[in-house]
């Protein structure tokens, strides 16, 4: 997930939370529900036991808990956020090979 955080009194000051595909979430998953496929770490909701260890381990604070399923979720680099942004303020660029962000 891409999370943009702006806070009063500096509404123009934003903190960008973006998954850099470092894989630390997968390292702590006790059931190996997070796998690396096509350059992206993916969460298998059928395997996940909702322990939230991955959320705690995320150094970028980008993983969220889906309130309907209690399963963690993260950016999968699909680009939908960039496509639907009405101001075209989001651009997805490759800066390093996925998984090499450590």
Can you walk me through this structure?
This protein is of the alpha+beta class and 102 residues long. It has a single domain (3-84), classed as Alpha-Beta Plaits. 15% of the residues lie in helices and 25% in strands. It is built from 3 helices and 6 strands; from the N terminus they run E-E-H-E-E-H-E-E-H. It has helices spanning 24-28, 53-57, 80-84; strands at 3-7, 10-17, 34-37, 40-43, 64-65, 72-73. The strands form 3 sheets. A two-stranded antiparallel sheet has the order 1-2. A hairpin with a 2-residue loop joins strand 1 and strand 2 (10-17). The chain starts with a strand and ends in an 18-residue tail after the last helix. The model has no long low-confidence stretch (mean pLDDT 84).
Short description:
The protein has three helices and six strands, in the order ββαββαββα. By secondary structure, the chain is of the alpha+beta class.
Key structural traits:
single chain, about 100 residues, alpha+beta, Alpha-Beta Plaits, two-stranded antiparallel sheet, about 25% strand
Overall average pLDDT: 84
Low-confidence stretches: none
CATH class: Alpha Beta
Task: Report the order of strands and helices.
Answer: EEHEEHEEH
**Structural class by helix and strand composition:** alpha+beta
Separation of the first and last Cα atoms? 19 Å
Instruction: Give me the CATH architecture, please.
Output: 2-Layer Sandwich
The domain tally reads 1
What portion of residues belong to β-strands?
15-25%
Helix content: 10-25%
Which of globular, elongated, flat, extended, rod-shaped describes the shape?
Answer: globular
């Amino acid at each position: 997930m891409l999370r943009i955080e702006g806070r009063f009194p500096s509404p123009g000051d934003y903190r960008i939370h973006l998954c850099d595909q470092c894989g630390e979430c997968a390292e702590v998953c006790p059931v190996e529900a997070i796998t690396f496929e096509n350059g992206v770490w993916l969460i298998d909701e059928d395997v996940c036991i909702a322990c939230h260890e991955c959320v705690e381990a995320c150094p970028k604070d980008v993983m969220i808990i889906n309130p309907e399923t209690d399963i963690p979720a993260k950016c999968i680099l699909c680009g939908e956020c960039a496509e639907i942004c009405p101001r075209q303020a989001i651009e997805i660029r490759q800066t390093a090979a996925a998984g090499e962000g450590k």
